[in-house]
Design a protein that fits this description.
28% helix, Lyase, Ornithine Decarboxylase, Chain A, domain 1, 10 helices, 9-stranded parallel beta sheet, TIM Barrel, 338 residues, alpha/beta, 6-stranded mixed beta sheet, 17 strands
């Protein structure tokens, strides 16, 4: 079966890069939503804890239950808030979210400072804070999210100014021991200084930055590599065709092999007329099938990719999509060095 290797040396290296930017690893929150961006929820959670990360961010309560034992606190982004004895807090994304929250729930209020996707509007912040008190919720944190931190734009600074207004309003209201966090991977790398309680590290922890080159090289190293094993080999005669649609025509006699990876594993099918070059420099011959690809040669196993950003460029997408769509049933193997 196709499988994934996780280079933990690279993972720790990336986390250390962000810890240096923030001044302390205790200020890092590892984002583990969607199976840790496809890397493996439990595998990454356990290693993040080993590094010294105390905070995690997930999408659902089910994800939180699987990994909360590793962390001091786990923030859940997209589930209804309820009272729990576990070390969990719930993001509140709307006024209805406050109204629906169970009394005594530990919540973190998301404020829309310009992304216009989710969060309380700034004009409704006073009303939201009053409702939190009325509902007897425990306000643990206040946060926002940046829409253009990884682009050549000044919008990041506009949102940061808006969030500063939010901070002042919350403090003036009288809440105590509330933590504030807005920074993601891109804004943390891009901005000097750090004056918040937490930074949410997502794609950067896994080795990728989508910042323009003018912002510099941040020495992040990909954690994930995708591998496939040979299932069979055959000798093609000149002009014989391979795979569905018979799109590849052998230009000469050649030895080819099939490998156990396909779109059923979350590897993109793409356009067979645009040959995909694998990590070893060889090309996929013909179409990607549900469970198989064909490549020249007869290696026992091959690396499909070890840099999701490079292969994402071939498909006209981003590294996030290449890793998050990988099947959760695929084996993840933790190694010290690839």
């Amino acid at each position: 079966m196709a499988y994934i290797k996780l280079n933990i040396d690279n993972f720790f290296h990336n986390l250390n890069q962000f810890a240096l930017k923030c001044g302390s690893k205790e200020k890092l929150a590892i984002v583990l939503k969607d199976n840790a961006y496809g890397h493996g929820l439990l595998e990454i959670a356990s290693k993040a804890s080993e590094f010294g990360i105390q905070e995690a961010v997930v999408r659902t309560y089910n994800e939180a239950l699987q990994i909360c034992k590793f962390f001091k606190n786990t923030l859940i982004l997209n589930d209804k808030a309820f009272l729990t004895h576990q070390n969990l807090s719930f993001a509140i994304n709307s006024m209805d979210g406050i109204k629906d929250a169970q009394i005594g729930s530990i919540v973190e209020l998301k404020v829309d400072t310009g992304m216009h996707r989710s969060g309380i509007e700034m004009k409704d912040l006073q009303k939201a804070l009053e409702l939190i008190v009325e509902k007897k919720l425990i306000l643990k944190g206040v946060m926002t999210h940046f829409r253009s931190a990884d682009e050549l734009s000044s919008e990041l600074f506009w949102q940061q100014k808006n969030f500063q207004i939010v901070k002042e309003m919350v403090k003036k209201f009288g809440f105590e021991n509330v933590r504030f966090h807005s920074q993601n991977s891109a804004s943390t790398l891009r901005c000097g200084g750090f004056d918040e309680d937490l930074v949410r590290i997502g794609i950067g922890a896994y080795g990728y930055s989508h910042l323009p080159f003018c912002y510099g090289d941040y020495d992040l190293k990909p954690v994930l590599s995708l591998w496939a094993k040979k299932t069979s080999s055959r000798l093609l005669k000149k002009s014989q065709r391979v795979g569905y649609g018979a799109e590849f025509i052998a230009p000469k006699e050649m030895l080819v092999s099939s490998y156990d990876i396909g779109y059923g594993d979350g590897f993109r099918r793409g356009d067979a007329s645009k040959s995909l070059v694998l990590a070893n420099g060889k090309k996929i011959l013909g179409r990607v099938s549900m469970d198989l690809i064909t490549v020249e040669g007869d290696d026992d196993e091959i690396c499909i990719f070890d840099d999701a950003h490079k292969i994402a460029q071939h498909f006209g997408t981003i590294s996030y999509e290449m890793t998050t769509q990988l099947s959760p049933t695929m084996q993840r193997i933790i190694i010290d060095e690839i």
